[in-house]
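REQUEST ID: PR-0412
SUBMITTED BY: lab tech R.K.
PRIORITY: routine
TASK: structure prediction, single protein chain
INPUT:
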Amino acid sequence: MKINVQNSSIGMTAGLVSQFPRDNRPQIVFSGRSNVGKSSLINTLLGRKNLARVSSAPGKTITVNFYDIDKKIWFVDIPGYGYAKRDFKDKKRWSALTDNFLTSPCEKRLILQLIDMKVGPTEDDYMMLDWLDESETPYVIVATKCDKLNKTDFNANREELSKLGPVIPFSSLKGIGKDELWKTLYEFLEN
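STATUS: complete
OUTPUT:
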């Protein structure tokens, strides 16, 4: 499958389950805690600066955002977990929206589980990885902000994360991991 990433746009912003697209396109889902770098990763993969809004404050994504990639696949940015200066009612609504999305039918879905390489996995990350394993949902761990570690810490943290599943170190600032991640995405889409 050839994909023209220049032909990318925000396809839809869904605040309700009824707004999710009902087509058979493969979905690449960006999951992780708030402020882990989901929007930066989307922009880097697509060679864009501002397609996905990057926020200085965690917890800003409150909808499921579908990015139309060349009318062939969806990049899906789901709300971050673990931090949000919102009331309990709002957090409960986002959680339900995310749960409904993750359990909605999809023929081909890959989760990119983002974990801050410097911080390491949080309790919420472990819960998400457990859910992905139990539901047999395919995923790859993307270790973001990898440029913030020295070589010794980088190697130690990568080895630790690799015990949880396949890991791709990534830096949106330096473009580290972009080619490896696209290679992984194409392999998933071709199979």
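NOTES: The chain has a mean pLDDT of 89.
REVIEWED BY: pending
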